[in-house]
Amino acid sequence: xxxxxxxxxVALPSIQSDLxxxxxxxxxxIIGYTVTFGAFQQAAGSLSDRLGRRAMFxxxxxxxxxxxxACGVAPNALTLDLARGVQGVGAAFVLANxxxxxxxxxxxxxxxxxxxxxxxxxxxxxxxxxxxxxxLVDLTQWRYLFLINVPxxxxxxxxxxxxxxxxxxxxxxxxxxxxxxxxxxxTLGVINxxxxxxxxxxxxxxxxxxxxxxxxxxxxGFLVLERRVQAPTLDLSLFRVPTFVAxxxxxxxxxxxxxxxxxxxxxYFQSARGLSPLQNGxxxxxxxxxxxxxxxxxxxxxxxxxxxxxxAAGFGILAIGGLAMAWSFDRDTAIWAALPGLxxxxxxxxxxxxxxxxxxxxxxxxxxxxxxxxxxxxLFMFGAGAGAAIFGILFRDRISDRAGGEPVLAGADHDxxxxxxxxxxxxxxxxxxxxAVTGQVRRTLETAVSDGASNVMTWAAIICVGTAxxxxxxxxxxxxxxxxxxxxxxPDKAEPEPA
Length: 499
Hints:
The protein is an all-alpha fold.
């Protein structure tokens, strides 16, 4: 489900060739999934506390599987767009209930290890999406990007029926905050849509400002409503617990730095260094492999050390990795110079990831784990969108500054050239310059993209340092209801030796 966020991007040319449709219709293949996936997270998590986690989890898998089938057999772009939106809803119901299910079954260090296995896989999936997507498109056709989910979903449903614990008796539906849940879905949907479309519409455009403005107004209305209802979709009193506040901030800024930054170092490798999507995906294994291994190490470390120290250490390593990448992003430097930074990025992400995910469900009773999980997952999506947006502005500004220093690029087509380069399409940017200077302009734009990516990773490193500080100052062991380091066993008093 995480892979499906980005796996489709490598297949867009094939999809357009097969189904036709406008550029806007193609963009909705990604936007529709992302918006609904983010919008339904909190509502799905909170409702599962009342309706049953097993039922909601299985419903999500069924919906995701059926909509994947619909995507795979879609006869036109509109059908594919609609099916992708439904697929995002199913994914939200699954992801929002996965961690609460783990929290329901496991306690203490066993819970930490279970979340480490799940969370590490979740966090590393984005790195392998380009590899899987590239292989499937090269070896088969784009429809198998979706059809491969059908047998996986069927197996998952079988395992759910045979392995998952039964839900407790369902409570009355009368007290559920349906209005709050619906308003929150609308709020998150509008804000996610604004963040997703901001780059294409322009961050200062009337459309983007209106979308984000409406989202803020809806959010304010939701917060007012939640203070008045008896059983809120999101209990605002949770934010009085410093460790829960830390969990939300860490969730937001971790994805801001890691997912937001990944967009631009991938653009660097593809645009400035000329790697294919498959080659780029294989290079990303330098992040995936250590992230997977260190996530499991982090789970074991939680048996002895405070999560605040583990999380802070992870973000400290992320910061060093980000700075190492920023230094290596130069078109005149060997591409392998980026490997140390990529490896450190994976080590730090794995070390910080699983204890960060555990925090929210470890500070609430089991009965409210869905609400806590939904909040964290929503902020993961928000952080990723906000990071891509803010870093996009920094990236584009650096490219614009570099391009402004090139006399041939100072003409009327400057904005079009900068826009194409910022989207990683230097070939399209070169269409706006005379043939005699394309080689010179290409070098300038490749250098500009390198500088832009370096600037982004420098800021990502700064954000990682700030996130480490949040973990050290706000995460308190006394707030953890479960999952804290196991108390050391005191030795039994020695028996007096016989006379």
